[in-house]
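Pilot study result, target chain (131 residues):
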Amino acid sequence: MNVNEKNGVNEKYFSNLSNRERAIFEGGISMGALFHQFIGTPVSSATAHQLEKTMEDSLKLQPCISDVKVEINLEKLGELNSEFDYISLSGDILNVQIISEFDEAYVLIKMEYINELEYPLMYVEKIKSNE
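Predicted structure:
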């Protein structure tokens, strides 16, 4: 039994959603939170791995999120000339995968920079559901 069932949260607040819709909702909310919480964070090649792990760990605390993979494209960080050099984290250097699950529903949500769009696009890549 997950915490949502134990406390009646799903029945009280999400009964109008299917399990599939709930998994998509939670994954989308988490992706938006990641983007707006961490964009602008100072990052360098020395701190990128630690920032990736921090982002992953913080999102795994959200309801229904079973896995998160964050990659900061170190090649796009460029050459930093001193120990004081860094850039601000931006969407064009992030690749993110979030797996959101609710009951039997499984959703893979991604964010990646799409060159043709010149935009860090968030989208649902895969859905597995019995509904």
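One observation from the pilot: Residues 32 and 105 are 20 Å apart (CA to CA). A full batch analysis is planned for the follow-on phase.
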